[in-house]
Amino acid sequence: MKKHIHSWEIEILIREVILNGNTYGTKTLSVWNHFYKAIEMLREIEDLAATVGSINNKFDNLELDRIIHRQIIWQNDPEGLSITKASMVFGDENLRELIEEEYGLGIEKILLLMIISKSMISRNIYFDTSTNFDCFSINQQQSCRVFEKIIISLKDLKENLRLTQQYNENWAYTWNPLISNPLIILDSQKRNHVICPIPMYLLRRSTSGIFYDLVHNERFTNPFGASFENFVGEIINTSCDKDRFSVTKIKPYTVKKNPRHGVDWVLSDISANLFIETKTKRLTLRSKTTIDPQHMDKDIKILAEAIVQNYKNIKDIYKGLTNFNVNDLPSYSMIITMEDWYFVNPYLSQRLFLAVTEKMKVEHINIEYLYKYPFSVLSSNEFEYACQAIGIIGIKNCMDRIIYKGKFEHSIIPRASRIFSDLNVKSFLFSEHYDSIWKDEIIMAKKKIRDRR
Hints:
The chain is α/β, with parallel strands linked by helices. It has helices spanning 7-20, 32-52, 60-75, 79-90, 96-103, 107-121, 140-148, 154-164, 199-206, 210-214, 221-239, 285-289, 293-318, 346-362, 369-372, 380-393, 395-402, 431-452, and strands spanning 127-128, 151-153, 183-185, 193-195, 246-248, 253-255, 258-260, 265-268, 273-279, 331-337, 375-379, 411-412. Helix 1 (7-20) crosses helix 2 (32-52).
């Protein structure tokens, strides 16, 4: 449709209104003609920006990739998945204490607070951060402590936008400070009265955004990795029947007095073995938003190192150095990432494969491992689909769908659900956990409200 408006265009419009708008204007975007005219102007600016920068045929593939990263988060919004994953990872015993120290609340309460707040914001342009949430067992001191982390004054927001804005080929892709501070204070005399132009940012700030509050804490990295590893284990245990599958947790071992961790999980059935390595590394902002290949290559190199490390672990397994009972079944290597990398661009898949082969040569790993133990890279969201498929049709049948001729010599699947469409695979594996995050609290809140009456 000619007049179809995309979510990412509205995001840019909000950014530009905040950056360049006056307190009192002569036109309103609530009038369709004004609104659509503004969208058309943004499209013209974006087309112009693409011609004044350094974009050329050499980087067309990276331009395609950043378009994908810009748009797909709006087209594919697994809100329930992100909330559940945040609850299970940040609520894990490895991180629970650290989260409570940082926010004064556990992750379930933080998520509940954001869900309720988003609901209130959808009904009223203004939101009062001093709202009483005690019926949900969240006192005002606790809620205000959380809100203080995500509010920003209009003045500071404007300044941050000026600092990040670029007037070149990156114009549409610059960092939006609203992602980290989605609540805006319009009046400095009323700090508790805020607006939230992009409610989705409020939820993202309380799920994947928590990482950025904690990443600089020296106590965070190892517990975070252990928590994500446990989350992947929950996916396996929920999807795979213990009567048909065996799950092995590799115990730490030593090689020439050097301690080694080994693969995180080994999943086996009568058809094959799956050697799983979990990684919390996420694609950096520059890789998602620029067309300079050095940023993407740096991230690809880190991912390639993880893939080759898993091959080193597999090599140790077949040497008999671990507690896994070696068998003659076909075997596969799988890297599971915390966040989606959206490697749907064949160009990037080829660069990854090249980085893996180069790293294998440096580490003296036989290139034949790529074919003997073919690798795949899935996000945890994709793995929820794939692991359910494994539970239904077995490891080998599932991996043969993921890894097949013509899809390059390794496997990175854009969305796992597409290749399992004929199976009874749930789109939401942990729906019961999702409900439990606030089910009891809402029941209790309703009871308290009735009691007050």
